[in-house]
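User: Sequence for Phytanoyl-CoA dioxygenase below. Tokens please.
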Amino acid sequence: MRFPSPDAPGDDGWHVDASFPGDDPSSFFSWRMNVASRGRALLMLFLFSDVGEDDAPTRLRVGSHQDIARLLEPQGDAGLSFMDVAGKVDVSAHREVAFATGEAGTVYLCHPFLVHAAQPHRGTRPKFMAQPPLLSSSAFQVRRTDGLDSPLERSIRLALERTA
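Assistant: Structure tokens for Phytanoyl-CoA dioxygenase:
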């Protein structure tokens, strides 16, 4: 929930949501993500109220999942912590920004590596949304060769094959 306010929200930095616990499971900042997207199949944005351009729509860096896949690949299964990735999301600063606007009931299904951010609410109505993860039922195999890859596995593999 976000209410209209002239003040910055304080949680509006660009980031990627982490998907599995790190050294301190009670601290989300130590949670991690890896190139196989361990623990998360999708980032979902559910709009429970109408969200227009002034109603603090989530900002989305279009195509940034490709940059993050390449950032994570050298880190192997251990991946990087939420804070490590947050400090490196500028690799996607060149990407076009889109906004998660829509009528109540709109759902955005996004790549789990999508760089996104909150923003100030300059509108007049409270914004109601939820951002639950879609958990994976089994481990993803980014380098599989059996032709049975999921759309997520395929998108990560394609990102790794591209140079930028």
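The first helix runs from residue 64 to 72.
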